[in-house]
Structures are given as structure tokens and as C-alpha cells.
Specification:
Helix content is 0%, strand content 54%. It is mainly β.
Length: 119
Amino acid sequence: QVQLVESGGGLVQAGGSLRLSCAASGRTFSIYRLGWFRQIPGKERESVSRIDWSGGSTYYADSVKGRFTISRDNAKNTVYLQMNSLKPEDTAVYYCAADISGKYGYEYWGQGTQVTVSS
């Protein structure tokens, strides 16, 4: 089992920045990849970014490329999402998820943290 706890969400004005954290606990040695997703009520969940736990390879959705940066601190079992130049359309609940197999998708999810960007 892997437990994930997100933090760092909040209310920010357009153009501002926030840093989300995702702290992993439990069988963290089994994590293959950690990803950030976001969801607006009534819309499908969107993949925002991901990072491979060991090699550090990253992915960004086109909508956030150049503005968001994902990073990891393996010693702290924590993944960060630095979000700069925030836009109102970035408003969503952001979720952290862990893929432990590399084959079957994300098996573990955090509870989510709300990010609200005012115009």
C-alpha cells in the first residue's frame, strides 16, 4: 500500500505561483511513477504532469508546459509541482497519484487539494 497526501493548494491571483507537495508513505520503494492530475467538476480528469521515481523522466501537458515544473525529493518521498504564471483556467482540484507497476496505470490516489486562480 502507498499513501499520498497533497498540500499547498489555495487561492491565488492570476499570474501568481503556488507549489503543491505530494508526500508518499508506505511501500514507497515500489513506486514507479508519480503523477499530478486535475479535475474540474463536470469535466474529465486531466493529466498535468508526471515524473519517474528513479530516472526522473518527466512529462507535461501542453496546457502547462513552460509554466509548471515537477520535481522529486526521494529522501523525503515527496514530489512537488511548482506552478507559475497561473491562469484562471488552472482552477481545479489537483490530485497526486502513484503508479507502482508501470503497466496498469495509477493505483493509488491522494485526497486532492483545491487550487483557485482568480482573474
